[in-house]
Predict the structure.
Amino acid sequence: MKNTDTMHAAYRVADELLKDRLKDRAPEMLSDLEDLQAADVIVTRGTYDHIEQVLEVTGTPCTTVDPRAIDGADLRPDQIIFVNCPGDYSPKGLRKLTSFVNDGGFLFTTDWALKHVLEKAFPGYVKYNQRPTADEVVRVELLDKEDPFLMSILGPEDDPQWWLEGASFPITVLKPEKVKVLITSKELGQRYGEPAVFVSFDHGEGKIYHMISHFYLQRTETRTKRQRKTSYDYMKEKGLKQEQFAKYADLGADRVGLGEVESAFTSRGVMSKVMYDKQQQIKKKK
């Protein structure tokens, strides 16, 4: 089990590494991400997940509100709403989320929000399979090998792990022709009947993203010799040079290993992909 300070350091290192990776391979994508303003990203608080902590650690501007504040919020279709588990919205709030996405907004949900938000506000796409997980870590695989953003940050050497908190909700895809599985896990499928880790689907003019378990990863496991290497070894895999390492020491790179940074990097990459996709949608409408 890794403590909070360790995982915060992992996320700080991962965020800087993602920026360096994009600066080298896709500077235009990095520019799009840096254009985000606080009003563009809304996070609704939850009991079990803390997406706002990742945004804070990585310096991403956002506005954090209680779920019930959505009832009276003036939502815009150019925004992204991140929903922390469990997603405790009123019936009015759920209706507003439906309209928000239908009009072009992006919605990102985690874990129990599958049942409490998606099944209610967007029925017929995905559902909880009624087989809650144990507290464990599984290996994940990237399925969408054509996605330009994910391909810019991940490489063939990556072997990320995903933390499943106790009682996480596996995802049953009801409409495979409409729901895209971006990240999967053979281990998850073997143990709980459904391999999907991260999915997305269009609804109206907008888009929904959902992932099993929590966005803020509180721990990881080092299963292989590679994962027990240092965080600097991971930076080398990503193409960084020795002269770039000094700034990472200040971010806590000496306190975390390759396994922690790799998991945080994958998690951070998922969030960045959602933000990048939103920026691309906005550009197309201008």
